[in-house]
Amino acid sequence: MPESEVYRKFREEGFCGSCGGRPAEEGRAKCRFCLDRDALYRAELRRDGIEPRASSKDLFLDPSRTRVGILDIESSGLIGDFGVTFCVVIKIFGRDELKIFKMDIGPRDMLASEKKMLKELVHYLRTLDGIVTYYGTGFDIPFLRTRMLSHGLTGYIRKLRHLDLYYTVRGKLLLSRNRLMNVIEMLKIADGTVPDKGRVEPAKWMRVIFAGDKKAMQEVVDHCVEDVYALEAALLRLQGVAPDRILRK
Fold it and tell me: Which residues, 6 or more positions from 122, have their beta carbon under 8 angstroms from its beta carbon?
């Protein structure tokens, strides 16, 4: 099958992005046959003492060969079964591509609005080779999974290659606090080009939740955009001490 036809069937019909002949597994870009074939190939490489390149940091962070998303979310709370997702922002690492998913807070049924946004997000995540977050293994991804499952979405986020820079900072640096804000403030001392990491007043979140304030919602989204650019800047300066293998989490 021509590569262009495989890609069309993957994007439009949910077929395997490798062979194009079978439906892709839920939350994955390939069918079960191709996934099993890839797993067998990797096992054979490991038996020969060769580490599969797909888990190599150098490959993972090479924008010319992979498509990795810097991801951040904003939500109404910290617990997935007692909150909603306001927005998800994904910046493609090393490329001038930014994707914003935000909930329409206009309709009275905010849950239906969130579900529509999350369905679009699932589709987009299937185009990525992996993600980079800051404490995303502890919050962003579990929160999104919880919200997707609560909406009955079958394509919820499964394991994917995930570099969580929080653990690199915690293990390789010695800061007063391991928040991204502290990382950015430290980096800005020597490099004024590092983007700011701002904050949004708690009252703005309250106005989004209880008043449906669209201006406040835009400030929350803008803050999320600032965060992904700040995280990319931190990653560029810390990738030398990041793990050599990027695992599925």
Answer: 27, 148, 153, 155, 156, 157
